[in-house]
């Protein structure tokens, strides 16, 4: 379940804690999350998905290389909402995940998908050091259904509204709720190459009712059969041909 809390972060600490608890209390139903991996700055878990319907295609077999290729192909476009009147200005495409993010996430997402049940989604959380904001957060979820990967990117290098400091208490609250948007910014999610992406109209044709999160701009659906593969590593250039023997 997705919420936007950026208006909450300006509350006093005590009010913020009460507001967050009241808002999220209704989402606490269902089994507790199952941790697959966690360290000081990253978490990958299995969580009950109330929208799973007849069930996801889990457990799913995706190698770490396949997951890495998926993450590497996701991009975002920031939407500048501080431009005044008129529609938000859309900035250029930037990769959603850095090489360092992919190194951390790919093997653990692969493992999580292989252990997920049909009613689980795989959530991820990264706290990333940032020179400007101290700490920024990337978080979201992924599921596999009938050969399609649904990736929801809730936060992408997002920071607290109003430039508030990411305290240890705030970071703990966020890592426990990776499907809560903390962003004061806004962004769209996309995928390259475009032919691997499945549109909502194509999902309707497949009679696939699952949509991931409620913000369709933050969800990409990928046909895993069209997932780009890693290009082969460049081999060393051939050396000079040996000289013909003298007669």
Question: What does it look like?
Answer:
The structure is a single chain. Helix 2 (64-72) crosses helix 3. The chain has helices at residues 13-24, 64-72, 99-115, 168-176, 200-205, and strands at residues 3-4, 34-38, 42-48, 74-80, 89-95, 120-130, 134-145, 148-158, 180-181, 186-191, 219-223. It has one domain. It is globular and about 45 Å long. The protein has a 6-stranded antiparallel sheet, covered by helices on one side. A hairpin with an 8-residue loop joins strand 4 and strand 5. It has 247 residues and is α+β, with helices and mostly antiparallel strands.
Enumerate how many helices there are, as a single number.
Answer: 5
Q: How is the biggest beta sheet arranged? A: 6 strands, antiparallel
Principal-axis shape equals: globular
- As for the number of domains, it is 1
Give helix and strand order, one letter per element, not per position. EHEEHEEHEEEHEEHE
Query: Roughly how many Å apart are the termini?
Result: 81 Å
Which structural class fits the helix and strand makeup? Answer: alpha+beta
Any idea what the radius of gyration is? 21 Å
**Quantity of strands, as a count:** 11
Fraction of residues in helix: 10-25%
Strand content: 25-35%
**Parts with pLDDT < 50 across at least 5 consecutive residues:** 1-28, 83-87, 232-239
Strand arrangement within the widest β-sheet reads 2-3-6-7-8-11
Mean pLDDT across every amino acid position: 80
């Amino acid at each position: 379940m997705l919420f936007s809390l950026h208006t909450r972060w300006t509350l006093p600490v005590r009010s913020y804690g009460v507001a967050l608890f009241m808002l999220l209390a209704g989402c606490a139903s269902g089994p507790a999350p199952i941790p697959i991996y966690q360290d000081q700055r990253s978490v990958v878990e299995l969580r009950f998905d109330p929208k799973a319907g007849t069930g996801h295609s889990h457990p799913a077999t995706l190698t770490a290389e396949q997951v890495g290729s998926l993450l590497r192909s996701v991009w975002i476009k920031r939407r500048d909402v501080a431009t005044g009147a008129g529609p938000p200005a859309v900035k250029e495409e930037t990769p959603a995940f850095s090489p360092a993010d992919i190194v951390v996430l790919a093997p653990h997402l692969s493992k999580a998908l292989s252990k997920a049940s049909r009613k689980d989604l795989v959530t991820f959380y990264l706290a990333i050091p940032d020179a400007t904001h101290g700490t920024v957060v990337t978080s979201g979820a992924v599921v596999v259904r009938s050969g399609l990967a649904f990736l929801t990117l809730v936060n992408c290098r997002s920071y607290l509204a109003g430039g508030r400091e990411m305290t240890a208490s705030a970071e703990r609250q966020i890592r426990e709720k990776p499907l809560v948007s903390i962003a004061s910014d806004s962004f769209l999610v996309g995928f390259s190459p475009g032919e691997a992406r499945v549109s909502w109209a194509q999902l309707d044709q497949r009679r696939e009712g699952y949509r991931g999160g409620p913000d369709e701009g933050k969800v990409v659906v990928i046909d895993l059969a069209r997932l780009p593969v890693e290009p082969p590593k460049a081999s060393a250039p051939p050396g000079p041909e040996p000289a013909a023997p003298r007669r």
